[in-house]
Amino acid sequence: MCKEIYLDAPNIGRLEKDYLSETIDSGFVSTFGPYISKFEEEMAKYMGAKKAVSTQSGTAALHVALYELGIGKGDEVIVPALTFIATVNPVIYVGAKPVFADVDIKTWNISPSEIEKRITKKTKAVIPVHFYGNPCDMNEIMDIAKRHNLYVIEDATESLGAKYDERYAGTFGDLSCFSFNGNKTITTGGGGMVAGNDEKKLEHIKFLINQARNESKEYYHPEIGFNYRMTNLEASLGLAQMERIDEFLIKKRRFHDIYKEELKDIENVYFQEEYEEAQSSWWLSCVIFGNSIDIPLLQKELKNNGIPTRRIFMPVIEFPPYENYKKRDYKNSYYIYERGLCLPSSTLNSEEGIYKVCKMLKNILLKRGEGKCVRSI
After folding, report:
1. How far is the C-alpha of 125 from the C-alpha of 148, rounded, in Å?
2. How far apart are CA 75 and CA 93, in angstroms?
3. Are 70 and 207 within one domain?
4. Among 52, 189, 342, 347, whose CB has the most other CB atoms within 10 angstroms?
5. Within a domain: 180
6. Where are the alpha helices (DSSP H) in the chain?
7. Integer Cα distance of 164 and 277 in angstroms
């Protein structure tokens, strides 16, 4: 009998429990301890970056990255309209203005041509989001940034392990930011990371997240800082998870391949596509359904059969704090949100469970006569 099916639950096993037990026994459970630096070193080594600095969350990582690059009042930062709100909130935290760009209808990532259209004399940076683990067209984005003298902060919070042009997502921009929330590919329970090759900037970020404390003078703080440190407990969990990352990535790609193979003959199902140079981590496997399908009703039927799903993120300009930033229609972002659904992708699932999801989805669509809809993208 097939076990319970999970949308994005963390995969925690014996190894993680052992690391956590060692940390608890050591007494180093707070923001000081050996696992923090070890986790940072492992992350940098894995990605091929010169340095990584752990933070309290992916949001904190984005905030301190913007702050370190001197982005503030009067500056504009180009962001995708289709993303989790945590991509955009830090832009407001530093006093800058978010400028929204539409996404590509096939990859669901920020469109380079849309970025170029939104650049003004006030533009200081762009934040490409590797949406659901799928890398952006980073060669084109970096070329645009170079021509216009812009910073690039990669929002890699969903894309650990993804690759573009044989390099890991998060190794292209001036700084990159990761998240280890409970639903990510690897988790520390909460937590994030800033990574890159500018060691001076990253050393300063390390200083800032510890309340800008000069430890040689005990509690002396020469700058305004932040309490954005990761705990040793979280880092120990992250270290254990890093030892299993290849296992997790192989599973996620296998699940995505099953979905594509099993649903390929359903004409009204469309998958997020990778660029030719890209290899998504498939943090979540997501699909778009044709216009005739009632998405909330489909979700309800799947839930009634033990299959959890999640809607695609709502475009950020739909939320009250960002309504006044809506300057155009962002048709692709809205289409993907309105027609999209995230399918079970947790590495706790078995292949049997993913096949069950496919079978149930096909049964529901074909029962309603919706399996032969004309493609509309």
Report:
1. 10
2. 12
3. yes
4. 52
5. yes
6. 14-26, 34-47, 58-68, 89-93, 112-118, 138-148, 199-208, 232-242, 245-262, 295-304, 331-339, 351-367
7. 5
Are 293 and 334 members of one domain? yes
Q: Which domain holds residue 316?
A: 245-367
As a whole number of angstroms, the longest Cα–Cα distance in the chain is 72
As a whole number of Å, the CA-based R_g of the chain is 21
Cα 68–chain centre separation = 21
Strand partners, 176: 154, 195
pLDDT band at 33 (very low <50, low <70, confident <90, very high): confident
Distance CA 338, CA 298 (A): 13
Q: Are residues 231 and 255 in the same domain?
A: no
- pLDDT averaged over every residue in the chain: 95
Size (the chain), residues: 377
User: Among positive and negative, which fits the CA dihedral 148, 160, 52, 214?
Assistant: positive
State the DSSP string of 50-119.
Answer: SEEEEES-HHHHHHHHHHHTT--TT-EEEEESSS-GGGTHHHHHTT-EEEEE-B-TTT-SBPHHHHHHH-
CATH number for the domain spanning 310: value is 3.90.1150.10
Residue 75 located in a structural domain: yes
* pTM: predicted TM-score of the whole model, two decimal places: 0.94
| Residue 236 neighbours by CB under 8 Å, 6+ apart | 19, 20, 22, 23, 33, 35, 39
* 226 plus 269 within the same structural domain: no
339, 105 in Cβ contact below 8 A?
no
pLDDT at 376 over 50: no
Question: Model confidence at 230, in pLDDT bands (50, 70, 90)?
Answer: very high
Instruction: Name the token pair of 152.
Output: 């690039």
Pairing of strands 151-155, 175-179: parallel
Per-residue tokens: 194: 């800033």
Could you tell me the CA-to-CA distances from 343 to 248, 257, 313, 355 in Å, in that order? Answer: 16, 13, 13, 12
pLDDT of residue 372: 52
Sequence-separated (6 or more) residues with CB below 8 Å from residue 373: 267, 268, 290, 291, 292, 293
Do the beta carbons of residue 18 and residue 153 sit within 8 Å? no
